[in-house]
UniProtKB/TrEMBL annotation:
SUPFAM superfamilies: MetI-like (SSF161098). This is ABC transporter permease. It is found in: Cell membrane. One of its GO terms (biological process) is cellular response to sulfur starvation. Belongs to the binding-protein-dependent transport system permease family. The chain crosses the membrane at residues 52-81, 93-115, 121-140, 212-232. CDD domains: TM_PBP2. InterPro entries: MetI-like (IPR000515), MetI-like_sf (IPR035906). GO terms for cellular component: plasma membrane. Keywords: Cell membrane, Membrane, Transmembrane, Transmembrane helix, Transport. It comes from Paenibacillus oryzae.
Amino acid sequence: MKKMRRFVGAQVFGFISFLLLWQLICLALDIRVIPTPAETIKQMLAEPRELVLHAGASVLRVMAAIAVSLAIAVPAGLLLGGNKWFRTLVSPFVYFIYPIPKVAFLPVFMLLFGLGNVSKIILMIWIIMFQIMLSVRDGVDSIPGLYFQVMKGFRASSWQTYRYLVLPAVLPHMFTGLRISIGISLASLFFAENYATTYGIGYYILSAWTKMNYPEMFGGILTLGLVGLLLFKGLDALQRKCTPWTAKGR
C-alpha cells in the first residue's frame, strides 16, 4: 500500500509539473493560439462524452492492431530466431521493409481495403508487427547456447524448451518492442484518422484546428497523451505480472 501511494504521488507530481510548465509557457508567449491549462481542462469537462467517444475509437483501433500483431509477429519472431532456413528466406524482406516509414503505405492500404477502419488498423499492424518480430528474434538470439544444451541434458521436449527457456527469455524483449511500436503507431494513427473518419482523437484534434477552437484542440492533444500514458502503464503492469523474474517485475 505504501509503494502504491508513493507511485500515485509520483504520477500526480509529474502531471502537475507538466501543467505548471505549460502555464509558464503561456505566460511567456502570451498568444491566443496557446490556451492555458485551465482553459483546456474546462473545455474538456464541457463535453466529456464526445471526447471519450473519440478517444475510445482510437484505443479500440490500437487494441485490435496489437492483438493481430502479436498473433502474427511472435510465432514469426520465434521462427526467425530458431530456424536458420526461415531466417535466410525472410530476413531480406524484413530488412527491406523495416526502415521504410510505414505511414507511406497508408494510400496503398486505402486503395486495397477502403477508407474505413480496416485500412487504419492494418497500417498499425504493419507498424507494430515488424518491431515485435525483430524484438522476439533478438530475444531468442540472446539465449546462450549452453542453456539449450542443459535442456537437452534434462531430456526436455521441444515444447518444454520453448515453455521454460525460450518464452521467458523472449517476453521482456517482446514488451520492449511493443512499447516502442505503440508510440509510433499512435503518431501514425493521428495521421490516418484524418481521412474518412468521424470518430478518433486524430480527427477530433484536426477538426478543432480547422474551427480555430484552440482549447478544444489542446484538449484533444492532452487526451492523446493520456491515452498513451494509460497504454504504457497498462503494459508496465502486464509486464510485471508476466515477467516477475526481471527487474521491472521485481
